[in-house]
Amino acid sequence: MPAAVGACYRLNMSTPPDALPRVRPLNELPALAQRAAELLVTPQTRLPLTPTEAAHVVAQMGVVQFPPGTTLIREGDDQRTGHLLLLLEGEVQVDTGEVPISVLGVGNIIGEMSLIDGAPRSAQCTALGPVLAAGLSRRGLEQLIEEQPRAAAKLVTGLAQRLADRLRALGQQVQMLRQIGRT
Amino acid sequence: MPAAVGACYRLNMSTPPDALPRVRPLNELPALAQRAAELLVTPQTRLPLTPTEAAHVVAQMGVVQFPPGTTLIREGDDQRTGHLLLLLEGEVQVDTGEVPISVLGVGNIIGEMSLIDGAPRSAQCTALGPVLAAGLSRRGLEQLIEEQPRAAAKLVTGLAQRLADRLRALGQQVQMLRQIGRT
Predict the structure, then answer these.
(1) Chain A to chain B Cβ contacts (< 8 Å)
(2) What is the secondary structure of chain A as a DSSP string?
(3) Are the C-beta atoms of B39 and B51 separated by less than 8 Å?
(4) Of B117, B170, B181, the CB nearest to A164
(5) Residues in chain A whose beta carbon is closer than 8 A to a beta carbon of chain B?
(6) For residues B78 and B107, which has the higher predicted lDDT (pLDDT)?
(7) For chain A, how many structural domains are there in total?
(8) CB-CB: which of B117, B164, B177 is closest to A178?
(9) Which pLDDT tens digit goes with each residue over A27-72?
(10) pLDDT of residue A124
(11) CB contact (8 A) between residue A163 and residue B165
(12) pLDDT tens string A77-125
């Protein structure tokens, strides 16, 4: 974990559920902001952003640290919702109830569904070690739409594509489960 | 069906699958364009657009007529894909394989998933009578992002919210089917 981020807010399970913590703006840590912008445009994220647009997105992000074992996202949580996380360091175990438990690492995005609709979380995410992430809140997204609408449009189009992929995969799973049910 | 739209392109099953037909711009029919803009901002669509932003979206739409019994969207179709339809007149029967067959009427949107990801259709949609629809293609969406990025960002955010809703519903369905499988 870089020393530079030692002062950023630590989210942990004792965080009061009724108040989102103040998160340190990512742009206060230029090297980390640069890294986040680079990760946003890797093929892995499938976001159709140019480097400049990625920098506009990063300008609305905050940095969050999670100690090992912390629940980043709790299934059914309707309080600490409405933001996505881009993993900058560490690994996260994800259990969506849809597919076998998976482990996500640096450059992966989690929580895009809650960013989009602000509804309760549908997955459980746990830090497997120290995790550092860049977070984008709904407020940050609204600000991005106001200030850099083209970057916002392309970001949300990319996130919608990710949701569409999951929807198609889940639709196939439903058909398969129904066929099993018939046999 | 208003006489004014008699000249617009008729999509039918004999349309060559390798070429999308030329669609008449919706703005050439001002009364219909106005109606489409009004329908885009009804609570039913759940799109967070202002009337002005809806007009920007409509400016990128074309009008399409479907005779009774026509397949508007064919499951697995990977050619006539990449556009959504806003129903302006008539009713459409939708079979997604996910839920019981449903009937959608005026003001409903279909095909948003294919607009977003351009992948093959995951539903089958059939015109129950004469259907008139406003279509937005991927090219239209790209044009909107260029010309009116704020309207585009809000449109795509709304479409992503619709996908997130479906994803949550389908996730619950998978859990239910799995529980049934265990009993």
Answers:
(1) 111
(2) --GGGTTSPBP-TTS-TTSPPP-EEGGGSHHHHHHHHHHHTSGGG-----HHHHHHHHTT-EEEEE-TT-EEE-TT-SSS-SEEEEEEES-EEEE-SSSS-EEE-TT-EE-HHHHHH-PPP-SEEEESS-EEEEEEEHHHHHHHHHH-HHHHHHHHHHHHHHHHHHHHHHHHHHHHHHHHHH-
(3) no
(4) B117
(5) 96-98, 113, 116-117, 119, 122, 141, 145-146, 149-150, 152-154, 156-157, 159-161, 163-168, 170-171, 173-175, 177-178, 180-181
(6) B107
(7) 1
(8) B177
(9) 999 999 999 999 999 999 999 999 999 999 999 999 999 999 988 8
(10) 83
(11) no
(12) 666 667 899 999 999 998 876 556 789 999 999 988 888 887 766 678 8
ipTM of predicted assembly, 2 dp: 0.81
Q: Find the CB nearest B171 among A97, A152, A153.
A: A97
Confidence of residue B28 (pLDDT cuts 50, 70, 90): very high
Question: The domain spanning residue B33 has which CATH number?
Answer: 2.60.120.10
- pLDDT at B6 (0 to 100): 36
CB contact under 8 A, A163 and B168: no
Domain extent, residue A27, equals 7-182
Contact check, Cβ <8 Å, B164/A116: yes
Nearest chain A residue to B98 by CA distance is A171
At position B122, the amino acid (one-letter code) is S
